[in-house]
Amino acid sequence: MPVFRQWSVVLFSASLFITCVLMALHPLATLDAGVRGLAIWWDVLFPSLFPFFVISELLLGFGIVHGIGALLDPLMKPLFRVPGCGGFVAAISCASGYPIGAKLTAKLWQQKLLTREEGERLVAFTTSSDPIFLIGAVSVGFFHTPSIAIVIVLSHYLGALLVGLLMRFHAPHASGTSGPAEHGQAGWREALQTMHKARLEDGRPFGEMLLDSVRSSLRLIIVVGGLVVFFSVLLESLNQSGLMQWLYNMAEVLLTNAGIPTVLSDALVGGIFEVTLGVSSAGAATDVPLAYKAAAAVFVLSWGGLSVHAQIASILNDTNLRYPPFLLARAVHAIVSPCLLLLLWKPLMGGTDTVQVFQSIWSVPLNPVSGFIAYTPLSLIIALSVLVLLALLRLFFKLLQRPE
């Protein structure tokens, strides 16, 4: 066994032991944290995710995903280098939130509709929050400002789109699966034929398919609930031990150097572990410009929290898809989305608050090194916009050259 792996096992074991000791020292706080995590799972996650889990399984069994994939193949291949069925995954994950995208991606890989590299690209940009949570829970529930919903939704999903365009360069020399579009087939007739063929290959009657879908979805939703409770207890244990205060102090130093109010350190540190905790802390922050609070919330939503990361890792464990590409994509999404929000804030929201935010971020100091750092987010957005235009042009010429 390599030395690095040996030390990682030792450190992980020591961390688990320390967590057990902290739980034993603070049993009441641990119990309350577990109950809070269970309440989040039962009241929010179970009713919102479980129906989508079941329906997605049924759609796979009936071959609808395969038919949609045949239609979307000419679009998904040039833009994201994934088969057309990835468009269905992107649409469902956008509507239902994480971890639906990873679950569907794993299913498509098991049915040999995706290669490993295509699956890694797909799961990297289809892990996003659902619009119901963004609008109802975040904008209305935590921020009490429904008007910011549009800028939060746009920045979050545009960030995911840009991550998908960047991930097309992941494993550039890897071969992909062949689709109908590669043979000049992308019509409705070919899509229906593909769907019918997939249904015949599945062969299960509807009753058996429904039972299998419920069983599989129950297993996954229980894993999701267990991870939420675990990270809720872990975070409370760290709070009780005082270790979280060290992380808060570290975040305050970074925010101070970046010219951002340090009040948001609670939201950012909490959001690294759990999404709901981070977003609620951002909404409850006082004496902070609304644009900063919204940017902190979008950072947390795009990162996903270690709880979501653990959910995705548990799903990918049954496949050969690797976790590091997903981790890199989450980090990029967490950086890009707040930049997009601050860029979109003035045209969509306006107000004097916006002027202060943009002056503090885009102002150029006399130091050329700091000036370069200040303009780095803007340069990143411009570069990503150029990539989008190039990808669209490539799609346009590809469609023109496609045989009738």
Automatic annotation (TrEMBL):
InterPro entries: Gate_dom, Spore_IM_YlbJ. Keywords: Membrane, Transmembrane, Transmembrane helix. The chain crosses the membrane at residues 7-29, 49-72, 122-142, 148-167, 218-235, 294-315, 327-345, 372-397. Pfam families: Gate. Residues 45-158 form the Nucleoside transporter/FeoB GTPase Gate domain. The keyword rRNA-binding does not apply. It comes from the Bacteria. This is Sporulation integral membrane protein YlbJ. It comes from Paenibacillus zeirhizosphaerae. The gene is ylbJ.
